[in-house]
Amino acid sequence: IADSPERRAARAARLGADRPIAERYAHYLRALADGDLGWSFAEQRPVAAVLGDALPASARLAGAALAIALVVGVSAALLGVGMPRRGSAFVETGLLAAYAAPPWVVGLLLLGACALRGPHLPTGGASDPLLGADASAPARFVDAARHLLLPALTL
């Protein structure tokens, strides 16, 4: 859709794109210092609100990934200490390969494996849409843990 030059100029003025880059950057830094992260065009609301809504889920994912990393790391260290040199090298090689693998590759492999194996680990969403609001707290916890395990393993 073709815009008229007047509409483009009005939009540029509204967004500040008609000002020099140094002035726009200084304005951005002043706004950032005041806690204004800007406006999300995709969500049509402040960026701080978008980030605030995503923070609890991100914190849960980070905590789960950290817990898994601690369990795997400590277990591998204890296993490697008790093994002869050749076994220890095997554990170290496995950990190095896991560390070096890009998360998106690991995620795709886990996603494919879980999708082919059945519904044990869901491949999408944060909760089961069929789980009713009247479900018990343990059932909701298990459902949330099942949905969190695959992304946490990926990280």
Overview features:
single chain; 155 residues; mainly alpha; two-stranded antiparallel sheet
Q: Could you describe the 3D structure shown?
A:
There is one protein chain. The chain is mostly helical and 155 residues long. Helix content is 70%, strand content 3%. It has six helices and two strands; from the N terminus they run ααββαααα. A hairpin with a 4-residue loop joins strand 1 (39-40) and strand 2. The relative contact order is 0.07. The model has no long low-confidence stretch (mean pLDDT 86).
- Please identify the structural class as seen in this structure: mainly alpha
Report the C-alpha radius of gyration, rounded.
24 Å
Query: Could you say which overall geometry the principal axes of the C-alpha atoms support?
Result: elongated
> How would you sum up the major sheet?
2 strands, antiparallel
Order of helices and strands: HHEEHHHH
Termini separation comes to 42 Å
Percent of residues in helices comes to 55-70%
- Biggest sheet, strands in spatial order? 1-2
Beta-strand percent range: under 5%
Q: How many individual β-strands?
A: 2
Mean pLDDT: 86
Please count the helical segments.
Answer: 6
Low-confidence stretches: none
